[in-house]
Design goal:
This protein is 14% helix and 28% strand. It is an alpha+beta fold. It has one domain: YerB-like fold. β19 and β20 form a beta hairpin. The chain is globular, with a radius of gyration of 52 Å.
Length: 415
């Protein structure tokens, strides 16, 4: 009876287990239960509560993946870096003394880096040009604001250079003055520096209204270059312009110039000029002066007697922004004999160049020539230039060379 009860209990337990597996979705067929199994009721209970090995587990959630934002498609072209355009200089026009203000040089129109230099007096220095073997290369002449080349009694030329805006380290060789040097310092309110002069010429200058502005060799700033014994003594006088201005200061005569008129300057060339890239003129059969225009810098470069004309301070070819061929009456002053004879006669009188009133000139700038009238109505006036209608004709900003010639010279070659 007990054995029959135990068998019935196993069958019931087996039925319950199969029912649980089917309910849980199991797929395995349980092992057959034999009647000889001796498993205790406690062990059967443990098997009833275990999770079958083949049970399906809930799915594991996929990890969250953060993706980068999609690329922004830009169909615009990649910008190209363009070069910075070069600024075009503003035109400069200077037609009255007021236009120059306090920082532009009235002799060149140039804007001064140090405007304080305009508070000093201009100085005129007499520079030799003959004979070439002793006088060239001249020193400092390339830094002059204005240069006047003129003939002397023997048909050689000499320079009067006006310095104001620049101070070269050395100027020379310095020689004697002529009657034209009674006029030029008056025009530019300048002091005059020279080695001396013929006694009658020196007296004429001294008796004029610039007589108190004469500074001769004994003044501060002069010195002699005597390194080369082959150079005659009269060609060895030089000067340090800074020292010359000191001499003017010590003479209580250094002050800003008082100009009563001024040349006009304009960076825009006047219209209707004739071509002038090459200028050739002759002061004598053996003295040839040539100016050639350089379009790259807008300047004229000087050659003399077939050789490059250089400044001895820097060995650079001398150039100018403006070249003016100025015609003026030349006549002998019969009151001043420079080569007297023993019989009381005179072999040669000094030449007076009449640079007052008005006359004809060729103004050459920017590769062109302009026929103009030069004016100097008052003794203290500098040269100004007008056209046929009386309008001012401006210079290019920069330095100017005046080629002063008599009317009887051959016409220059201008191409």
């Amino acid at each position: 009876m007990a054995k029959t009860f135990q068998q019935s209990h196993r069958l019931i337990t087996l039925f319950i287990l199969v029912t649980v597996l089917v309910a849980c979705g199991g797929q395995e067929t349980p092992a057959p239960v034999t009647t000889t199994d001796t498993t205790s009721p406690t062990e059967i209970a443990a098997v009833d509560t275990a999770v079958p090995a083949t049970a399906t587990l809930p799915p594991t959630a996929a990890p969250t993946v953060t993706l980068p934002p999609p690329a922004i498609v830009n169909n615009e072209p990649t910008p190209t870096t363009l070069p910075t355009p070069t600024a075009t200089p503003e035109p400069v026009a200077l037609y009255s003394l007021e236009d120059f203000g306090t920082d532009r040089n009235p002799l060149t129109g140039e804007l001064m880096e140090d405007p304080s230099v305009l508070q000093r007096r201009p100085i005129a220095i007499k520079i030799s040009n003959n004979p070439p073997s002793y006088t060239r290369p001249q020193h400092g002449i390339g830094q002059a604001d204005l240069v006047f080349e003129h003939v002397t009694e023997t048909n050689i030329t000499r320079f009067t250079a006006i310095f104001y805006g620049q101070t070269p380290p050395d100027v020379g060789p310095i020689r004697s003055a002529r009657l034209i040097d009674k006029e030029l310092p008056a025009m530019y309110d300048a002091a005059i520096f020279m080695s001396g002069s013929h006694p009658l010429i020196l007296d004429a200058i001294a008796q004029s209204d610039i007589g108190d502005r004469i500074y001769r060799e004994m003044s501060t700033g002069y010195y002699r270059k005597e390194e080369d014994d082959s150079i005659p003594f009269e060609h060895t006088l030089y000067a340090d312009p800074a020292g010359l201005w000191e001499a003017v200061e010590w003479g209580h005569d250094n002050r800003p110039p008082r100009f009563t008129a001024t040349m006009a300057f304009d960076t825009t060339p006047p219209p209707d000029g004739d071509p002038a890239s090459y200028v050739e003129l002759h002061y004598s059969t053996w003295s040839e002066v040539v100016w050639e225009y350089n379009e790259e810098d807008g300047r004229y470069y000087r050659t003399v007697d077939g050789e490059t004309f250089v400044d001895g301070n820097n060995d650079e070819q001398v150039s100018a922004a403006n070249v003016i061929i100025l015609y003026a009456p030349h006549q002998f002053d019969h009151s001043i004999c420079v080569y007297p004879r023993e019989d009381g006669g005179c072999d040669l009188y000094t030449t007076e160049i009449q640079i007052w009133g008005r006359g004809y000139a060729m103004l050459i700038r920017d590769g062109h020539k302009y026929d103009v009238t030069w004016l100097r109505q008052n003794r203290s006036d500098m040269f100004t230039f007008i056209d046929d209608a009386g309008n001012p004709v401006p210079l290019q900003i920069g330095n100017t060379w005046f080629q002063v010639v008599p009317f009887y010279y051959d016409d220059p070659i201008i191409e």
